[in-house]
Each structure stands twice: as structure tokens, then as C-alpha cells.
Amino acid sequence: MVSSDHEVPQKKSKDLRETDLYAPVKAFLEVQGYEVKAEVQDCDVVAVRGEEPPVIVELKTGLTIALLLQGVDRQAITDAVYIAVPRGKGRAFFARVKDARKLCLRLGLGLISVRLPDGVVEVHCDPAPYQPRKITKRKNALLKEFQKRVGDPNTGGQVGRQVMTAYRQDVLRVLDFIAKNGPSRPRDVVAATSIAKGPSMLSTDHYGWFYRVERGVYDLSDGGQAAVVQYEDVIRGL
Residues 26-57, buried b or exposed e (16+ Cβ, 10 A)? Predict the structure, then answer.
């Protein structure tokens, strides 16, 4: 595997090309004892050191699906496959690198960035077999939401519409109770709906549907009255 970073002076270029990445990457590998050659059997960069498996680096001016597919294809030759892209500036670039690193780790690819024009090369991750770590807390939250949600009120991939969560469904049940019974106390809401979080839903009023008439008594706001009409079909299904 390759390691650390290495600085190679390079002339600044307005029109970035894949070939601009080659000299810094080549120098970076040669410092570590590799013999490096370009365009060998359709591979952008091939590096060999003694009897070790060859290292392949694919160069692109941006992180694209085509580059990732190219890297995956080269894994039929060697496990030591890296993809290299120009290094950008600012937080936006590092946010993209963070996501790209996750994806490369899943694919078993290494990720390299080259800072032009000064030629600083940085290895963000090395190729390695992907071993996913399951987060039990997230799985439990997923299953809890799935089990608590009534029916299937959403459409997969929906955009521009608020997701109907189990929490929102419970608030609608509280809304419906007050709409039918008038100003109510939290304990009456809990007794009738069996929603233990009913009191906090009323006091927090996340959707702006309730207001406190007096201490310990809640009624529907104008927004709540409108929600009764807007979500009539949903409430009927609950």
C-alpha cells in the first residue's frame, strides 16, 4: 500500500486534464520505491515494487461513476487499485471526500487526491476488503418506526411532501380526539388514545396545531382546525 503525502512542484494549468495528475502521482509512488509506467494494458498508472502485487491508479478530473466502475474493473488484475482526482478547496470538497471515502471503502478501492498546481498527493484511504459495521441503534430505530407506523401512507422516493411518520400519526390521533371532544386535559387524551407521549405532544406543539386554553387544558389552534380538514383521509385510516 502507498502512504503519507509527498509534494512535487507543478506548473499551474487553467484547463485541467487527467494527464496533469500523472507527474505528481508518479513521483509520489517513486519516492516509495515503485517503478512506475503509464498506460499499460489500458491502466492509467501501474506501479511495481519487487515481488509485491502491482498497484494500479486510475486518473480522472472528477469523481464519477465511470471512474468508480473503472476502478472496480481493475480489481480483476490486483487488489491494490486506487482512483485519483484533483483536490479542491474549502469545506465543500472535504465533505465530498468524506462521502467518496465511504463509497471507496465499500468498493475496496483506494482514494487519492492531488492538489494542483503544487502537486501535493494525499491518500484518503487504502484498498481493503469491505467489512460493514452494523449500527444496532439505527436498526432498532428503523424497526420501531416501521412497526409503529399505521399502514403505508408515503410513496418511496417522494419529494416536496412531508413524510408521514409514526409520531405525526400519533399527533393526528390527539388532534382528532380534541376536535371531537373539545378542550381536553392531557390525562384524558392519554386515557382515550393510549398515546403515552400525548402530554408532551400538546406542550411541545411541534406542528402548531394546539394552544393552551388554561393550565392543563388544550384546544385546537387555527392551524389545528385546518389540519383536521387537510388530513381527514389519514385520520380516518388511523
Answer: bbbbeeeebebeeeeeebbbbbebeeeebbbb
Q: How far apart are CA 100 and CA 106, in angstroms?
A: 10
Please report which confidence band the pLDDT of residue 1 belongs to, taking 50, 70 and 90 as the band edges: low
Integer CA distances (angstroms), 65 to 70, 81, 206, 238, in order = 8, 16, 41, 43
- Rounded CA-CA distance 68/63 in Å is 8
pLDDT over 80 (residue 232): yes
What does pLDDT average to over the chain?
Answer: 88
- For residues 39, 40, 42, 44, the Cα torsion angle rounded to the nearest 10 degrees is -40
**Where are the domains positioned within the chain?**
5-125, 160-237
- CATH number at 5-125: 3.40.1350
Q: What pTM was computed for the model?
A: 0.62
CA distances from 42 to 9, 20, 73, 99, 171 (A): 27, 18, 11, 27, 60
Cβ neighbors of 130 (< 8 A, separation 6 or more) are 105, 106, 107, 108
Q: pLDDT (tens digit, 9 = 90+) per residue, 42-88?
A: 899 999 999 999 999 999 988 889 899 999 999 999 999 999 999 88
Say whether domain 160-237 belongs to CATH 1.10.10.10. yes
Give which of 34, 31, 33, 8 is closest to 21, Cα–Cα: 8
The four Cα atoms 8, 13, 18, 24 give a dihedral, to 10 degrees, of 0
Residue 116 and residue 7 in contact, taking contact as beta carbons nearer than 8 Å = no
Nearest alpha-carbon partner for 60 in 22, 9, 99? 22
